[in-house]
Amino acid sequence: MSSEEFEKLHEMYRSLYDELKLLPERALKCQGEERKRLTRVFDERQGEAEEVLQGMEDELRGAPPSFRNAMNTKLRIYRRDLAKLQREMKNNSSHLMSEGSNYSIYSSQNQHSTHLQSQRALLLQGTESLNNATQSIERSQRIAVETEQIGTDIIEELGEQREQLDRTRDRLVNTGENLTRSRKILRNMARRLVTNKLLLGIIILMELAILGAVVYLRFFRK
């Protein structure tokens, strides 16, 4: 969006509206051809104002959402004010119905044109609302896909961690079994060591007894 272009259109609209809002009262004070002329001027300026508002709407399509929403509200107020001036001018011009059928046909055509412009504005607003809803749905879908992907990654990671825990548990079971066998082996070795010590002690005692007997028989027995 070009902010400079938007401001230029906004100033053009304000200028047209300032001119338009004076015409119904002026037309009420005039008669005949002058009133017809003012009515034609009003219709021309009102058409220009509608085109300017349409240009402002086009410029707002590329604006940030916060600014676009605020200005769209202001544009609806502008269109309401234009419609109000149109009704005032129509009421003031209704007194000219007896002055000729040509003006009546022209007024009817202008009213139909205004109705079409209003319908077009409503259609554009509906289209914009639909586009906003579509964008919101697309954002929600993207978030859902990203969330699903994150969930899948977490599940895969948890699966890998479970496998690691199972392997660790198996290793711990094997280590426990090895420790049990090691304790049994150590207990057997300890029993054998004690047995060997007892046997060695008995052998030493027997040797001492034999030595004592030999000494006794050799030196003390005559």
From TrEMBL:
The keyword Protein transport applies. The lineage of its organism: Eukaryota, Metazoa, Chordata, Craniata, Vertebrata. InterPro entries: SNARE (IPR010989), T_SNARE_dom (IPR000727), v-SNARE_N_sf (IPR038407), Vesicle_trsprt_v-SNARE_N (IPR007705). One of its GO terms (cellular component) is endoplasmic reticulum membrane. Residues 127-189 form the T-SNARE coiled-coil homology domain. The chain crosses the membrane at residues 198-219. Residues 68-95 form a coiled coil. It comes from Periophthalmus magnuspinnatus. Keywords: Coiled coil, Membrane, Protein transport, Transmembrane, Transmembrane helix, Transport. It is a single-pass type IV membrane protein. This is t-SNARE coiled-coil homology domain-containing protein.
